[in-house]
Each structure stands twice: as C-alpha cells, then as structure tokens.
Design brief:
It holds the Pfam family C19orf12. By secondary structure, this protein is mostly helical. Helices cover 81% and strands 0% of the residues.
C-alpha cells in the first residue's frame, strides 16, 4: 500500500511530459538542431568546391562553428527529464504543483493556457533539469 501511495505523482508526471513533448517551444529546439546541421553541410560543400578535400574539412568545421553560434541551447530536455529517478520526478512534480498553485492535472492544463505562464513553467523545468538534486 505504501508503494502505491508513494507513486501517486506518476500520472501528473506523465501528463507533464506529454505537455512538454507537444509544446511548440520545445519543438523549436528541433529546428535549431536542423539549422546547425545545415550550416555544417553547407560549409563542407562550399569548402569542398573551393579547396577540394582539405577545403571540405575546413569548410565543415567553419560551418559547424557558425551553426553552433547561430543556434540556441538545445540540450535534450525531454531526455534529461525521462531519465530522472523516481525521487527526482516527485520533486519536479512538487515544484510544478507549487508553481501552478494546485495538485490537479486540470490546474496544470489551465496554467499552461497562458503564454507567459508556459514560459515560466519551462524556465522552472529547464533550471530543474540542470540540477535535479538542488532543485
């Protein structure tokens, strides 16, 4: 019975992950990855046309560096969150519920209805993902 009660945060956590997986802000990170790869590929092609194989190497490196500078930070937030331990998941759920001001999934759904609140939620989650122990 204690195990069942201890896992009460799991449905909330699953709903939170579903929201994060379908959030347009997170989808934008995939565009950042594509953009960075495109810079590297273009640099390689241009360098190869201009300087042959050594030019392709230099162009690829230059394009990759330029792409890195042009793209946003896109650490795989979902991957980090999916790999949290149960105690870290519970801690994340607690922090989100405190922010949202309720423990129900309905409160979370209402909260993310506002763009500014979505950004605050994502900020909290990004900060948590960088230091789950410190929260």
């Amino acid at each position: 019975m204690a195990s069942f009660i201890g896992m009460a945060f799991i449905p909330y956590y699953k709903q939170l992950m579903e929201i994060l997986a379908t959030n347009p802000d997170l989808r934008a990170s995939a565009k950042g990855i594509f953009k960075q790869v495109a810079y590297g590929a273009c640099g390689t092609a241009i360098g190869g046309c201009v300087g042959g194989p050594p030019g392709a190497l230099v162009g690829g490196i230059a394009g990759s560096v330029l792409g890195y500078w042009q793209s946003d930070d896109y650490d795989s937030l979902l991957k980090v969150l999916y790999s949290l331990s149960d105690s870290e998941k519970a801690k994340l759920v607690q922090k989100v519920q405190e922010l949202v001001g309720g423990t129900g999934i309905e409160a979370l759904t209402r909260f993310i209805g506002n763009q500014a609140q979505r950004e605050v939620l994502l900020h909290l989650i990004r900060n948590f993902s960088k230091d789950p122990q410190g929260g």
